[in-house]
Amino acid sequence: MTAWFETDAEAVRKLLSPSFLPLDGIDGVPTRLRFYDITFEPRDGSPEEKARGAGTFREAVIAFKGSIAQVDGEFSAWMWSNGDVYNAWGREVFGWPMVRAKIDIDGSLFDSGRSGQTTFSLVTDEFSLHLEVNDEPIEELSPGPSPNWLTPRRVLFPGGQEAERRDLLIVRPAVLQPGVFSRHAGNLSQEGGSDTWISSLMPIGEVVVHSSRDFLISVGDSVETVRGA
User: What is the CATH classification number for the domain harbouring 35?
Assistant: First the structure.
């Protein structure tokens, strides 16, 4: 589930890496808050090996459309998950800024056996974000290709023997099964943390929610590092 909205361009420039060039929207920078409820397994290996490496986690991500080193994509600047395994390999393999948090999901869009308003909540030590989604779709959509996931990385060398280096990690996820894709109206609210950075990134104008269900992606087959980006 992805909430799309625009955020204040000056706030984005102050908070994000100077290597990131944000895309200009109508009133600000196109931004998404994405919630995932994921079941994962290794792509390769025997059934027994896949079963050992399988698991579940929930994730919430704030990302911005733009470019780094002339590569277009989305910069996932803040990432939270309730899965310790995912947090570990996300940080260690890809250098993603993973932080542990509580993520709650409820309602009929998430589970057809449930009733009531569909809600997604991210609860951190500083603040909470709550996304309410209108269950009735505005329209059905045709899924497109997944964008590049951009992660700027600052590489430091021990002992000061070599100057630090700025790299760009590009992950190109492959959509194996597009699933069901629809557009909904939504509302995003904040609780707590009124004096923190998150307040400057709250939506300007309307919030449009893209619902993706029963999709399958593969992450890790196409990864590139641009050194000195």
Answer: 2.40.400.10
Q: Which domain holds residue 16?
A: 2-226
Question: Which one-letter amino acid corresponds to residue 140?
Answer: E
Question: What letter does residue 127 receive in the DSSP assignment?
Answer: -
- Number of neighbouring beta carbons within 10 Å of residue 215: 14
- pLDDT digits 0-9 by tens, 88-130: 989 988 889 999 999 999 987 777 666 678 999 999 999 999 9
Tell me the backbone φ, ψ of residue 124, rounded to 5 degrees.
-110, 180
Q: How far, in Å, CA of 174 to CA of 221, rounded?
A: 8
Count of structural domains within the chain:
1
pLDDT by residue (tens digit) across 172-201? 999 888 888 999 999 999 999 888 999 999
